[in-house]
Write a structure and sequence with these properties.
Elements lengths: L6 H12 L5 H14 L7 H15 L3 E5 L5 H7 L7 E6 L2 H13 L6 E5 L2 H4 L3 H5 L4 E6 L6 H10 L3 E9 L2 H5 L1 H9 L3 E9 L6 E9 L2
Parallel strand pairs: 1-2, 1-4, 2-3, 4-5
Antiparallel strand pairs: 5-7, 6-7
Helix pairs in contact: 1-2, 1-5, 3-4
This protein binds the ligand Nc1ncnc2c1ncn2[C@@H]1O[C@H](Cn2cc(CNC(=O)c3cc([N+](=O)[O-])cc(O)c3O)nn2)[C@@H](O)[C@H]1O and magnesium ion.
């Protein structure tokens, strides 16, 4: 039998204890403090989070897709910077993680901007237009299984969900690494790619984000 709490549940407790309801920045700080000082977790984190913030603000997207919600840390980071009326759809495969993420997103007061969908990205991407009335995504954050980055990017192209100028931002291209994805976006004439060097969340190890602009 599964007893006790999970890491995501302990992270949620830390948010409820240390953050202020309705204040996204305090939720982000509470998670970063917990994961740096108490228990590591695979959030994009504060170092890479600053790069995510700046790329996101540059794009100022109306529609965002996030693949791999986990506990909702990057969902909160992204949604807190999005303009009124803009929409973030986040896809999460694991129901236990999705349940924690919903509570963290709600604690931050961002539930009106965010639609969390449970299921596999491969199944859900082809349903985005019909189920959510999405024409295109302006911004895509990839942070799910690393070997799903490349196939899911091709799927987004095939489903006509990318337009000229859509920005893809991929986490962990160094650690754990997404070699197939890097090869794809760096060699394809349909993308303009750039690597942002940083650290693996809460550690001194190298990691980075790859920003790829779809050229149409
Ligand atoms: N195809 C998929 N569709 C929907 N959700 C998915 C899919 N693949 C994974 N997920 C979900 O993403 C969440 C988080 N996740 C992310 C990964 C892949 N990311 C990592 O493994 C990772 C690993 C490290 N690390 O090991 O240092 C650091 C990071 O920043 C990472 O993102 N695996 N689960 C999980 O809840 C999982 O159900
Ligand atoms: Mg990651």
């Amino acid at each position: 039998i599964m007893t006790g709490t999970s890491r995501p549940q302990r992270m949620l407790k830390a948010v409820q204890k240390n953050a202020t309801k309705g204040d996204p920045q305090s939720v982000i700080s509470a998670i970063d403090y917990y994961c740096r000082h108490k228990e590591w977790a695979m959030n994009v984190g504060d170092d890479k989070g600053l790069i995510l913030d700046s790329v996101l603000m540059e794009v100022n997207p109306s529609t965002v897709l996030e693949l791999g919600t986990y506990c909702g840390y990057s969902t909160v980071r992204i949604a807190r910077l999005m303009s009124p009326g803009s929409k973030l759809i986040t896809v999460e495969f694991n129901p236990a993680f999705a349940e924690v993420a919903r509570q963290i997103i709600a604690y931050a007061g961002l539930q009106d901007k965010v639609t969390l969908v449970e299921g596999s990205s491969g199944d859900l991407i082809p349903k985005m237009k019909e189920r959510f009335g999405i024409k295109y995504f302006d911004f895509v954050f990839l942070d799910h299984w690393k070997d799903s980055y490349a196939p899911d990017t091709k799927l987004l192209e095939d489903c006509g969900l990318l337009k000229k100028g859509t920005v893809l931002l991929a986490d962990n291209v160094i650690c754990p690494g997404a070699p197939e994805y890097l090869k794809y976006v760096r060699n394809s004439p349909r993308y303009e790619s750039r690597y942002y060097k940083s650290n693996l969340e809460y550690t001194k190890a190298e990691d980075g984000l790859e920003k790829s602009v779809f050229l149409g």
